[in-house]
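ASSEMBLY PREDICTION REQUEST
Request ID: AP-0331
Submitted by: J.K., bench scientist
Number of chains: three
Total residues: 738
Priority: normal
Notes: Please return the full assembly, not individual chains.
Input sequences:
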Amino acid sequence: MKGVMLNVNPTLQFVDVTHLIGPQDVMEAAFVIKNMAPFFPAGTVHLAVVDPGVGTSRRPVALKHNEQWYVGPDNGLFSLVLNSQPPDELVVLDKPSYWRTPSPSDTFHGRDIFSSVAAHIASGVSLDTLGSPIETLKPLHWALPIADQQGVQGWVVHVDHFGNCITNISKKLIHDQCNSLSVKCYVGSTIIASIKTTYNTVPTGEPLLLFNSHGLLEIAINTGNASEMLSIRKGSPVNIVFTDDC
Amino acid sequence: MKGVMLNVNPTLQFVDVTHLIGPQDVMEAAFVIKNMAPFFPAGTVHLAVVDPGVGTSRRPVALKHNEQWYVGPDNGLFSLVLNSQPPDELVVLDKPSYWRTPSPSDTFHGRDIFSSVAAHIASGVSLDTLGSPIETLKPLHWALPIADQQGVQGWVVHVDHFGNCITNISKKLIHDQCNSLSVKCYVGSTIIASIKTTYNTVPTGEPLLLFNSHGLLEIAINTGNASEMLSIRKGSPVNIVFTDDC
Amino acid sequence: MKGVMLNVNPTLQFVDVTHLIGPQDVMEAAFVIKNMAPFFPAGTVHLAVVDPGVGTSRRPVALKHNEQWYVGPDNGLFSLVLNSQPPDELVVLDKPSYWRTPSPSDTFHGRDIFSSVAAHIASGVSLDTLGSPIETLKPLHWALPIADQQGVQGWVVHVDHFGNCITNISKKLIHDQCNSLSVKCYVGSTIIASIKTTYNTVPTGEPLLLFNSHGLLEIAINTGNASEMLSIRKGSPVNIVFTDDC
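STATUS: Completed
Returned structure:
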């Protein structure tokens, strides 16, 4: 893919965000895109190829949102970063003259369509040159955490390199329900009480809750691997019970 | 290695193709080089260091082929991309003034010889300045698939990130033997009949055959890991039997 | 982190040295920094975030040493590359206007402080603009190998991609004690006699000792994985006994 892009424009600068998305895991990719995109400059082109439907009728798309561009399959990858807003521009990629080849492989559109289009966008080609306007992306309804004044039920959406388990429960969601941060968290093989601000506030080897650098509730162990030690996996349910009156 | 190259020329652009070649697996590296090189622009310098013979009498070489350069040990790494053609230029690297040091480590020529030479090539230094012309690379005879009008016997040469198992059996090899694509494929713990064009043409969890984006027969499972689920490894034999008259 | 740096300066060039340091393993990171830094050009900014104390009172620092800069937490990461010399310049990072945000996350100073500061240094901002001078880094006393004319006791500090086990015993340390290189090495489940210069000097599958490309004693197996086959891990003790009179 980088070879294809350098053929379009040899001066491009690449940043590899991750090569560790689980195979076909569109939700994990959408989660990573949402969290990393705001830290990149205006003008960045985000190329994302988690594409279980490659070779089927799923559409190849490109869009503009918040002064950045996104290129990839129309399968929900961009739904979280868009956060229910319509993109500023949105096209289906139907102009093969901007692809690597007019006869793309049935199994690798990342190489034959998306890379080439992304490189053209980064080189200043407009979206309406690269495709035809469409109105909407494929709707994708993420299951959201359930919250009321008794508590919140969500789940683990990402386990990082350290074994920290990041949930889909945001600080804002909890605050909207309850003034108090006195909670019990039922997750994996354990119960964790109270929310800390940093890892070192509990003894080495002890579990804790905190809001991570994206404002999401995280289950961690001070200098330990929470996923392994507490038997928590991507998808594990996380139940928060408020222990004070809200 | 990148530090050494930036000392030669701070304006170089790097692309990491892979760091996941199996230790000492010259054949896997040769396979990756053959498949990725054509997608890179003219002028690209390919630096490849899979070098089990480092510190022995195996020669350090550089060569030019199809308007691209290759630098590495003379151990067969470049035999597949050359495809039995002689290189346009070929030298043994015997000019220590272009190395990082005239006294290279016995165990890391990647750092002390190859990186420095690759950076000089990328900066415009000619091959005949960097070494002395030689006639031929070390001959290396890859075992090739055996084909006749009954079928083809090959093997798995690469298992990718998704568990897809790529064989050394090309679409052309099959077509040369048989007009029909009606086959049975015996591989690992299973038999797979018929060749599809994309993963989604079978139900989720079902195995299939297809020709991948390089034209090579691949054993896959729709949204699954064929290597794990079918007990197929790099080196596993793959037997194709033609089921129609050819 | 790269997004943050590109916001400061879109022309930066990045080199990823490693993403494989063990979680919270400051010593392994310090070892890698010491070994790779000398190969990079003058002017390089090394950004290192192995930061178990993030969010506590440990100080964020930047320093200059040998015409290169280093940015990260004050936890010993830079102690080995400094080799007991004082840095040429040393500041505590206390100027939030050069951070990504004046309210950094408690758990990701890599993104909110260190990246932004590193990008400013690479763009020409002086250390005394980015922080306030301090006298010393947190002292950190690495346990060193013990050597006398009977032998040397050290340990494995790094296991590389190939399973080679690198020790903290340098060629110089052995030479300082003994003119002879006739040794027995007790490590893991084996005893290895004599020191070779390259892997191929023993039969395939046999263990050997050599001094690696950084001058450190390494335990290896010719085309094999010494860590797995000899049950050697990071931290395993290594005992060298001199077998000739010194």
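REVIEWER COMMENTS: The two ends of chain C are 52 Å apart (CA to CA).
SIGN-OFF: pending second reviewer
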